[in-house]
Amino acid sequence: MPELRKDPVTDRWVIVSTDRARRPGDFVRNPVPAAPSGRLCPFCPGQETRTPPEVLAYRNGSQQNQPGWSLRVVPNKFPVLGIEGDLDREGEGLFDKMQGIGAHEVVIETPDHLLSMTDLSERAIEQVIWSFRDRVLDLKNDGRLRYVLLFKNHGEAAGATLEHTHSQLIALPVVPKRVQEEMEVAGRYFDFKERCVFCDLVRQEMKDGARIVIETDLFVVLEPYAPRFPFETWIVPRRHHSHFETIDGQQAQNLAWVLKSTLRKIEKVLERPPYSLLVHTAPLQESPKPFYHWHMEIIPKLTRVAGFEWGTGFYINPTPPEESAKFLREAGLG
């Protein structure tokens, strides 16, 4: 009999199949192929003039917007929001609107066109983490911006339009509805119990163990109790911090290992699936929150959202998280 499960972080219900659970081999596969030659790739060294001027780069003494970098952040050439101008908020009767002010940037994670994130060294992945932090701290100085979404789409089916491995950030002048909902539920939990729901979640999952994938002194990787999608995976810090940009050196180093290990497990079990990686963090201009806890979510692209999901807000997950966790744990780290 399928189960209805409620996510304690969002109050969202999902339908989880427990009697006819789908195994990794049961999903339609769209494996991400290895990237071909980057001869015409605008993200490769020597092509720096084909992108907007960089806003951040980690270099070994080389000149700006020239080869010799290990990571580079540039404005998106086709941004969804623009950085110049004023918000100009106004109403038209019951309608509200403002100018599309924000930032849209691309993190080019490596100069090597042929590598995916799982091929990168832990040091290179740590650089990606630092670039996320550095850009958030810089954008935080712009009082017009309220939220920064850090994300990575891997593979065409997940939304990536270029093969060269990269991440993105979009800074918004409003807090997204899904973030607001998550914070509201976490805030109500804190008001009632005077504890962070994420901290309680980590403690309970570590005690139970059935949905744990990886555990270190600083992070827990788990399959959430009520996942929207098969093999949806969360990386949650064990120490409470509401804002991702407060990450320190020890955490960044450990997170690089945890992230690489988790993605390698997913690649091994699901044969290199497309996926999206998202960083959930507290809004930019707000003080530290005792009720909110930053975390990462990794969502492999294995199923489609269709009419039932759009019409109800429910999700149907054909694989229980306990099974997903077991498959990932047993995949090893090789």
Structure commentary:
The chain has 334 residues and is of the alpha+beta class. The chain has a single domain, classed as HIT family, subunit A (2-Layer Sandwich), CATH 3.30.428.10. It is 25% helix and 22% strand. The chain has six helices and 15 strands. It has a ten-stranded antiparallel beta sheet, with helices on both faces. It has a three-stranded mixed beta sheet with strand order 1-2-15. α1 crosses α4. The longest helix has 22 residues, at 249-270. The protein starts with a strand and ends in a 5-residue tail after the last helix. The mean pLDDT is 91.
Number of helices in the DSSP assignment: 6
Roughly how much helix do the residues carry, as a percent range? 25-40%
- Strands ordered across the widest β-sheet: 3-4-7-9-8-13-14-12-11-10
How many domains comprise the coordinates?
1
Task: Kindly report the CATH topology.
Answer: HIT family, subunit A
